[in-house]
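3.2 Worked example (two chains)
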Amino acid sequence: MIKNVIFDIGRVLIGFEWMDYIHKLFDEETGQKVTDALWKTHYWWELDRAVLSVEEILEMFYSVEPEYKDEIREAFDRVGECMTRCEYAIPWIEEMKERGYKVYYLSNYSEHLMQANPDVLDFLPHMDGGVFSCYVQLIKPDPEIYRTLMDKYDLKAEECVFIDDREDNVVAARELGMQAIRFENYEQAKAELENALLHTPEV
């Protein structure tokens, strides 16, 4: 029986349209260099893991494209501008809760992003809890971060359905015994969630 719905946040409950954002800041060549510095490596994941300082991680970004240090810093400092509210987030969460399900989040997320645009997280008070990677120094798809969430709220994997936009995170959830859905868009994910819930009585 499914009792719990667990959401990723980035590109699931909030929009994170990087390329639209970067094209507003820079020309195509500069935008690509900045994108390479911030996303070509796994350095951004270290921001989510929050073991190193922000300044240490910035130096890692700069090392990829040292001639674009100022532009990298600008894009980093203004990153909140590429994050947008999803109007469906709160209604979707509230619908699940009204039907008796507990609703949680499990997200690779940094304090920098929280501070850059806190308004996009206005759905958090509507949820029953969750885990941000930066507070536990673990990131998906490490199984330990899923276990951290389950231990914190005494959840059983077989009673959870997890929704995430990354296939590796979805696979990790399934390997732990959860049902899991790869988020492509709201309509698709909501339909797949409803299908999953149809096979279990509502709580």
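3.2.1 Second chain
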Amino acid sequence: MEPAPPVGSRAVNAPAPHIIVALDYPAAEPALALARRLDPARCRLKVGKELFTRAGPGVVRALADAGFDVFLDLKYHDIPNTVAAACAAAAELGVWMLNVHALGGRRMLEAARDAVHARARAGGRRPLLIAVTILTSLAEADLREVGFGGPPAENVTRLAALARAAGLDGVVCAPTEAAALRATLGGDFLLVTPGVRPAGAGAGDQRRVLTPAQARAAGADYLVIGRPVTQADDPLAALAAIEEELAEGPA
């Protein structure tokens, strides 16, 4: 079931694309240049740490002004008051979605939730709020090294359940974990999956990957895809190929 758009998002009857293109650029101009070649009806856009640190809030506003739903991927993780203030500031930028780290704990998650809901109560746009569980670059050996017991999927399930209990809209998870989370947490909890690679693309530094069609079939709502689009000779053709792959379903 397609989740309802947040307040101030695109019209209810308009297309709701599943693809989020990650604008992992070192400056605003190449990110904005790519955005000018893309269609807000076909994809959403993600602004992460490097681009935001170099270009600041201006690039987020420019993308939103161009009609794109923007996922601000800064993974806030700090004391509750600090995270709440950061989430409130992000909401004021008009972002469609933002995220925090589930490892910040229940009080931090609830403070972030309250901050974005306060935006809606004041008549503004409420962004979707999701939590990062376990980074898709981490394997079980990496988790053991930092003191976590059990495989990634076990830790992801526990953190996702905490995020749901704290009233968040969903989580970021590896596509390989989507089916289990969908079965456990139900159909109204958003699953946003990086680690998605079109058939034939390299995995890069991601460890737990699926193709776009496999990720959607597993229950993912939104697919974060970066280099297969942004580094393609023809980004529009790359996006169209992913759309075709999604339409055909998993092999």
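3.3 Remarks
The chain is about 45% helix and 15% strand.
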